[in-house]
Write a structure and sequence with these properties.
The complex is a heterodimer of chains A (287) and B (343). Chain A contains twelve helices and no strands. Chain A is mainly alpha-helical and 287 residues long. Chain A has one domain: MetI-like (MetI-like fold, Orthogonal Bundle). In chain A, α3 packs across α9 and α9 packs antiparallel against α12. With 343 residues, chain B is α/β, with parallel strands linked by helices. Chain B has two domains: 178 residues, 3-Layer(aba) Sandwich (D-Maltodextrin-Binding Protein, domain 2), CATH 3.40.190.10; 142 residues, D-Maltodextrin-Binding Protein, domain 2 (3-Layer(aba) Sandwich), CATH 3.40.190.10. Helices cover 43% and strands 17% of the residues of chain B. In chain B, α6 packs across α7 and α6 crosses α15. Chain B starts with a helix and ends with a helix. The chains are: A mainly alpha (287), B alpha/beta (343). At the A-B interface, α3 and α11 of A face α3 and α15 of B.
Chain lengths: 287, 343
């Protein structure tokens, strides 16, 4: 009798899980394995071209310093964007979770999520209009200040960081918000009644308790930013060559899919290695 | 039931004989897919036209290789015609089927890149230049030399396309080298290293270019002649300049894939594409230079293309692009990537 119930449970579990696993297989595993296969070929395996299995694509990464330099540049960009997003996003999440209540919280939430509803290209192009020389920002600043200011932020690393932070900020706000809301207000009151200063409460109570949320948001931002290509290309101008744009070039401009796939997998490996190296710290933050 | 099937089969066969649907493979928005042109062709011959597009020459070749029988007319840049012929992708053209062939510029029809192995594999359709265009608001006097791209006065307001091959070719011309026989790649690298700090951003499409130019980001930038005529028609204050060092010339031909099943209708379409009646109307909207001498003669005096080809000294300075070997292409790309990464 017991076995049949277990069998039924298993059947139910399989039925409920199968859409998710099917989706993972079709949308993640298959394309990823196709790309892994491409990365070991000498040429794309269609159109009657000659191809054979080779390691040359991975070797190409180590033959010049170009790719490593660019990867380092992209990792730095990822760190900066993540740091700025956390510094800007955490206070926002605090206000949402603990300060405002009711209707105004809903309105603020809407404002946070709003960027997600617009196409990312549209967002970047609107930033281009704002940032470019004699653009919206330049004119606004010049209208306020009496002397002539030339901001000229467009086509600089600053422009790339602004665009990326704007795109990814909601992640860190939402994850921190969830973590902050789970903190019992009475804990903070207890700390206060025991004479803890505001800074002590922040450092010893709120930050440790909300660390899982902050870290989850940071990881969600760091990984896509390292591989980003659209924002650097459109906002970075001649300085906008990053690891992601080089991969895009291989697929779109030069039609060298194998090299592009190999570069992508190296990026994946490096990001996984960084996350693995950071995991002890992350674990400690969680407990 | 049988009779019904038979009649429908007959109807289908009848349509096949009298009205073909031909499939054209081309860049998007490049002449062959103009609505009025297709409508006029359908009215004349009864054949209908369907388009498919590519975004790079490599993609075009891949599509021809992987979809035999899917295309009837394909646009191939003369630098790639020999490769397509060698792979058996396209057929030699039967010039007797092209009524306007006698009017085509003999030097283009006899172009050695379009005639690999001595037979014509692509009907010369249009040609154009990649050179520089300047904002007439910034330049009181037109520059005469490519060195304007390196002029510190325009630092931060210069642009070129993000394309390794083209960047190398421009540097080669500025150094007095032949773009098809580059001898000193180190000198080119040094020249491009000097050029990069001048650049504000790279442009990638005509639309891009127009926006940057109208926003005042560009004072001088590389550009295509056909696009320049379109931008001028839209009212942008620009001038297209062919400097004394020369300009990069390209020649596009229309070919018929070996696997095409509608070769007659395909030839008729190519004939319409080199028809002066078509070209004069296209030119008014902004077009590259036609290969048909009668079509050029029929253009109004003010036409951009008419003025461009009228000056034989300009045409003499053009360096037509030859096929580039894969090794060279890769070397240029690597050089370009290294330079960009070092920024």
């Amino acid at each position: 009798m017991a076995t049949t119930i277990a069998g039924q449970d298993r059947l139910r579990a399989v039925t409920l899980l199968s859409p998710a696993y099917l989706w993972l297989t079709v949308a993640v595993f298959l394309p990823l394995s196709a790309m892994a296969f491409f990365s070991f070929l000498s040429d794309v395996p269609f159109g009657g071209r000659d191809w054979h299995v080779t390691l040359d694509n991975y070797r190409a990464f180590f033959e010049t310093t170009t790719y490593a330099t660019l990867l380092w540049k992209s990792l730095k960009l990822g760190l900066i964007v993540t740091a700025v997003s956390v510094i800007v996003g955490f206070p926002c999440a605090w206000v949402l979770a603990k300060v405002v209540k009711g209707r105004s919280r809903e309105a603020l939430f809407l404002l946070v999520i709003l960027p997600f509803w617009s196409n990312s290209l549209v967002r970047i192009f609107s930033w281009a209009i704002v940032l470019r020389g004699n653009g919206v920002l330049d004119r606004a600043v010049n209208a306020v200040l009496p002397w002539d200011v030339k901001l000229n932020l467009m086509f600089s690393p600053t422009a790339i960081v602004i665009g990326l932070v704007h795109s990814y900020l909601p992640y860190v706000i939402l994850t921190s918000y969830l973590a902050l809301q789970a903190i019992d207000d009475s804990l903070i009151e207890a700390a206060r009644s025991l004479g803890a200063k505001r800074r002590t409460i922040l450092w010893r109570l709120i930050l440790p308790l909300s660390a899982p949320g902050i870290i989850a948001g940071a990881v969600l931002i760091f990984v896509p930013v390292v591989g980003s290509f659209m924002e650097p290309r459109l906002l970075g101008g001649r300085l906008g060559t990053y690891y992601g744009t080089v991969i895009e070039d291989q697929f779109v401009a030069v039609f060298n899919w194998p090299l592009g796939a190999a570069l992508s997998f190296i990026l994946l490996a490096v990001v996984l290695a960084i996350l693995a190296a950071a995991s002890p710290i992350l674990k400690r933050a969680r407990t | 039931m049988k009779r019904l099937l038979l009649t429908s089969a007959l109807i289908l066969a009848g349509q096949g004989a009298f009205a073909d649907e031909i499939r054209v493979l081309n860049w998007q928005g490049y002449g062959t897919d103009l609505d009025w042109a297709i409508a006029a062709f359908t009215e004349k011959t009864g054949n209908t036209v369907v388009h498919e597009y590519f975004t790079s020459e490599q993609e075009m070749l891949t599509k021809l290789r992987t979809n035999p029988g899917a295309y009837d007319v394909v646009l191939i840049n003369s630098a790639y015609t020999a490769q397509a012929k060698d792979e058996g992708l396209i057929d030699a053209i039967d010039t007797s089927k092209i009524a306007h062939f006698a009017d085509l510029d003999p030097s283009l029809a006899g172009n050695e890149d379009l005639n690999p192995g001595g037979a014509l594999y692509g009907v010369p359709w249009t040609w154009g230049l990649t050179s520089i265009a300047v904002n007439t608001g910034d330049f009181a006097e037109m520059p005469t030399s490519l060195s304007v791209l390196w002029d510190p006065a325009w630092k931060g307001r210069v642009s070129i396309r993000d394309d390794g091959l083209e960047a190398v070719q421009f540097a080669a011309m500025a150094l007095g080298q032949n773009i098809n026989e580059i001898t000193d790649l180190d000198a080119i690298k040094a020249k491009l290293t000097e050029l990069l700090p001048q650049i504000t951003t790279f442009w990638s499409s005509e639309n891009d270019w127009n926006q940057f130019m109208s926003a005042g980001e560009f004072a001088v930038a590389t550009y295509w002649s056909g696009s320049a005529s379109r931008s001028q028609a839209k009212g942008l204050p620009i001038a297209f300049v062919v400097p004394e060092e020369g300009a990069i010339g390209w020649l596009d031909g229309l070919s018929i894939p070996a696997s095409s099943t509608h070769k007659g209708a395909a030839a008729a379409f190519i004939d319409w594409m080199v028809d002066p009646e078509f070209y004069v109307k296209w030119d008014a909207e902004g077009a590259p230079v036609s290969s048909n001498t009668k079509a050029l003669a029929a253009l109004p005096e003010t036409s951009f293309n008419r003025k461009l080809v009228e000056d034989p000294a300009t045409v003499a300075r053009v360096q037509f692009m030859k096929p580039v070997s894969d090794e060279d292409r890769e070397a240029y790309l690597k050089l370009w990537q290294d330079l960009k990464a070092a920024q």
